[in-house]
Amino acid sequence: MKNGWMALCVCFCLPATAQVTGTGAHPQSPTVTQLHEGQDTSTRPTKTANLREVLVSTGATRAISIRENPIAISSVPARKIDRATEANLVDALVKQVPGLSAVKTGPNISKPFIRGLGYNRVLTLYDGVRQEGQQWGDEHGLEVDNYNVQRAEVVKGPASLMFGSDALAGVVSLFPHVPTQENGRLHGRWLSEYQANNGLIGNGLRLGQHKASWLWEVRGAYRIAKNYKNKTDGPVYLTGFRETNASAMAGYTNGNSYTYLNATLYNNLQGIPDGSRDSLTRRFTRQVAEGAGDDIKHRPIVPDAWLRSYTLSPLHQHIQHYRVYANGHYQLGRSLLDAGLGWQQNIRREYNHPQDVQQAGLFVKLTTLHYSLRYALPPLHAIEITLGSNGMYQQNRHGNATDFPIPDYRLLDAGAYVFAKWKSGRWTLSGGLRYDLRSLRSHDFYLAHDARTGYLRPSKDTVGAVLQFPALGQSFTGISLSAGATCRLNDVVSLKANMAKGYRAPNITEIASNGLDPGAHIVYLGNRNFVPETSLQEDLGVLLDGAGWEGNVSVFNNQLSHYIFLQQVPEEIVQGNKTYRYMQSKAWLYGLEAAVALHPVAWKGWHWDNSLALTYGYNRDDAYRHAGLQGAYLPFIPPLQWHSEMGKEWVLRHPILPSLHAGADLEYAGAQNRYLALDQTETATRSYALVGIQIGGSICYRRENQFQWQFQVNNLLDATYQSNLSRLKYFEYYGASPNGRSGIYGMGRNITVKIILPF
Hints:
Elements: E1 55-56, E2 64-65, E3 72-76, H1 78-83, H2 89-96, E4 100-104, E5 110-114, E6 117-118, E7 122-126, E8 129-130, E9 151-156, H3 160-163, E10 170-175, E11 186-195, E12 200-211, E13 214-225, E14 229-230, E15 234-235, E16 241-254, E17 257-271, H4 304-307, E18 316-332, E19 335-350, E20 362-376, E21 383-398, E22 409-424, E23 427-442, E24 445-449, E25 456-459, E26 466-469, E27 472-488, E28 493-504, H5 508-512, E29 514-517, E30 522-525, E31 533-546, E32 549-569, E33 578-598, E34 606-619, E35 641-651, E36 659-669, E37 688-702, E38 705-714, E39 750-758
């Protein structure tokens, strides 16, 4: 199709629990109080909300309905999140939002991609605060509590106007729970789950109170898992984890205004799979030596008891994330003010020395101070104008480590924008302009051999040292703009159109990488001559809202200049580790998203939801334009994705079992034969289909209290599959194997039991 226009977007059958008011991170309107988790509705049948009633706040100055927002955006309510039984939150959102995918390194490590773009192009917000935790790394996921997300919103397409650099592909916005019942009573919730495949045991607790104008809540969660398994690989060595979360909030509300103070703690001990095996038996092996003493082909086989144990290997990663922040939303007459200020620190250690297990190979500390301001002027006739600014100061420092893939650095980021919206009758027009400045600085970084340990260490003395990273001093500026329109043709059909110019400054790894990341088992090589990426994306969409059905169709076309991507190169700089070089080129992505949700009025309680997503990505550099698999395609582009779910909910007149639901779902991924084969960066991926079934309901245990239970089987048929976005697909040391299978496969059949007990 001309200019890459394809498309059909999606709109989900969203229950009323997705409704939000106000412009801040938390709803405050008393009309939605009981729809939030003061009264848990995760398994109670709910009336489907009309599209006009589903309000979103991410990327908007004031809360706006999905139907009136020209930007492609999806909202995932608490009910959907509570019913999810995936291994982590990102995977749960992927099943609900077409166009959202994830690069994975095992069950607990998923990084969000939107329409084929990821890493520092997707900005994750937690309670309106940027999530800053070494996003460039492959071998860790989001540092958030999976059991404490009340709802989520996903902006698909450039969101640079509101959020600046790093939102070029879109935004994943996560909203934690906040007490809303103003009766002064202590309320809480206990969540417990067990997943049989990897023995995952998870428990989460929260307690809170809202009395008059004051509210508070404390939360905690703990998850532990063994190695996951499938029928091809058996238990996959080094994929277990142990994760702990704690958080607290206190706040004061006054009418439609509030001020909240928050603190969170995340602690994760995570295995680091390397895929080493015995060449004949294909059983996993373990590293016991380094350097010349490490014979990869003759490593000892991992004992079965180790594969099935909750005990983590000494070779693991340890990720800690601390966050303290305040946010406020203030009604000032007819104007609104949102403000946020916070501090966060991400500490990442990777232990990769089998003969010195207490010595971290990688040890980095990323500290970030951030701010945000947004002022919505009083509406003038039908025009709403908002002024805003946000930014951060960031510092990254190495600790006691032996591998240094990036230098120590300081980053200063600031931007300001103006946004306007006009609404009259059936039409809504919106647009804005933003200017960004980013400064990146680092000093000369020398390394020298430590005679005592034999490791390389940072050195202030240049004598006998090697200059690993020359001093860096670069500044980047960019302009972002957006213009869009929606038209409600009638009560059934609405049209959307949006055009956005996005901007993203190169990150430190893309510019300055020059060393081994031991957790990824990759040597990264950057390029200091890179310039910022820019994108020009057009979106067209149709929203349909009928009696007993809803649908949405969206097309997008994205032209990127100076697109940065990773390409494998033949050199093996460090034994047993691959080498990747950052490249820059012109790129073109286009595709479609479509969905339909059927809930026939005559068939009370039945629903059938279908969604489809398709993305194409091409390297438009003249040297690769007609190169086919040897350079014409971009890496990490998801194939055709289709998800279908059918279910029935019953409202029972039983004093103990008041409600019940059951259903089945199908997840289909098409074959990916458009991939970057140059220097074996990627390989072809076969199609696969995963079937799941579930049954659940609510049980009254006291007169006014119910608990929700759910039993679910994912990958019911125990299919053998590999996603083209799974990094484990490429964890292979041999050119051929006895069973003809290469790399590591996805999780096999998984039975999950989940209980949610509100009190």
